[in-house]
């Protein structure tokens, strides 16, 4: 019999990502330190990482993604951000490991199972800012709307993070999320990770049956223009391969790929492109 996929649902991908944070933290030249990552990943996270194709084993994309989002969080705080909402937070530990203002309110949202597990595993740890978690099915428009209304109450310059979320949503679901965030005046910035159709399909093929219970959908051929057409403004775009080379985490085949002309992030076609984008709310 064919063994069941190790990724039983989308929440298991958070364990997979945590392994790469743990691996980076163990390096003598680590770009960040996440002492909680290995505990959160557990045996399942290690097993999932072991099934990844050789091109992904180093976790260079996840390391680069983490470094880039950390930097954009710091930038948003420097620009007056007074609250952070992390949608589909998974096993992220930024409220424990980043140098954040102690008065900052950080709110995490995710499915009940992963929230309960995280609360248990981190019960003895103290975050550096005001941290709360809520169980929310973000695909439920009504539940999402009520959560966002609560989460933004009393804030004036909110940063939303949706790391590792959009790829598992349909175009219509991403469009609905973008519109619901844009409708809230307190939300100022939105950090997303974005991939072209070619990168999405490469991931699906590389992981094969492992992603059958967490299918990837979103990978717009028009890239950031998908969000611009909804009124969002692009503040920063950081191309993943280029940045991985800059921080010295890119494998040799990625270094070679960056010698080619960089594709237009608004017209990706068949290009292999992925990046981190900071969007600004339409009415700003």
Could you walk me through the main structural features you see in this protein, from its secondary elements to its overall organization?
With 284 residues, the protein is an alpha/beta fold. The chain has a single domain (58-280), classed as Vaccinia Virus protein VP39 (Rossmann fold). It has eleven helices and seven strands. The protein has helices at 12-25, 37-51, 60-78, 94-97, 112-121, 141-152, 171-182, 197-207, 225-228, 240-246, 252-257; strands at residues 83-87, 105-110, 130-135, 158-161, 187-195, 233-239, 274-280. The chain has a seven-stranded mixed beta sheet with strand order 3-2-1-4-5-7-6, with helices on both faces. The longest helix has 19 residues, at 60-78. The model has no long low-confidence stretch (mean pLDDT 92).
Looking at the structure, the CATH topology is Rossmann fold
Cα-based radius of gyration, to the nearest Å: 18 Å
Instruction: Calculate the mean pLDDT score and round it.
Output: 92
- Count the helices. How many? 11
CATH architecture: 3-Layer(aba) Sandwich
- How many distinct folded domains? 1
Q: Which strand order spans the largest sheet, edge to edge or round the barrel? A: 3-2-1-4-5-7-6
> What's the name of the CATH homologous superfamily?
Vaccinia Virus protein VP39
Beta strands, count: 7
Helix-strand sequence:
HHHEHEHEHEHEHHEHHE
Question: How would you sum up the major sheet?
Answer: 7 strands, mixed
Low-confidence stretches: none
- The best one-word shape is globular
Q: Portion of residues in helices?
A: 40-55%
User: Which assembly state applies to the chains in this document?
Assistant: single chain
Structural class: alpha/beta
Strand content: 15-25%
């Amino acid at each position: 019999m064919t063994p069941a996929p190790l990724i039983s649902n989308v929440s298991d991908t958070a364990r997979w990502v945590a392994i790469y944070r743990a691996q980076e933290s163990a390096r003598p030249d680590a770009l960040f330190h996440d002492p909680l990552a290995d505990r959160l990943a557990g045996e399942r996270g290690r097993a999932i990482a072991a099934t990844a194709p050789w091109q992904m084993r180093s976790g260079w994309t996840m390391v680069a993604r983490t470094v880039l989002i950390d930097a954009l969080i710091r930038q948003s705080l420097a620009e007056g951000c007074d609250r952070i909402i992390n949608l589909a937070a998974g096993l992220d530990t930024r409220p424990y490991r980043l140098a954040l203002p102690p008065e900052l309110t950080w709110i995490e949202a995710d499915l009940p199972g992963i929230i309960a597990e995280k609360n248990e595993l981190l019960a003895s740890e103290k975050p550096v800012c005001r941290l709360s978690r809520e169980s929310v099915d973000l695909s439920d428009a009504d539940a999402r709307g009520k959560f966002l209304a609560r989460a933004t109450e009393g804030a004036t310059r909110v940063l939303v993070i949706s790391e590792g979320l959009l790829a598992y949503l349909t175009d219509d679901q991403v469009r609905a999320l973008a519109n619901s965030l844009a409708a809230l005046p307190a939300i100022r910035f939105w950090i997303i990770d974005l991939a072209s159709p070619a990168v999405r399909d490469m991931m699906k093929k590389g992981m094969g049956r492992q992603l059958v219970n967490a299918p990837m959908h979103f990978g717009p051929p028009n890239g950031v223009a998908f969000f611009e057409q909804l009124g969002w403004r692009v503040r920063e775009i950081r191309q993943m391969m280029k940045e991985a080379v800059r921080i010295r985490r890119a494998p040799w085949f990625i270094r070679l790929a960056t010698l080619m002309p960089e594709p237009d992030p608004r017209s990706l076609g068949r290009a292999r492109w992925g990046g981190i984008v900071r969007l600004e709310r339409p009415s700003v």
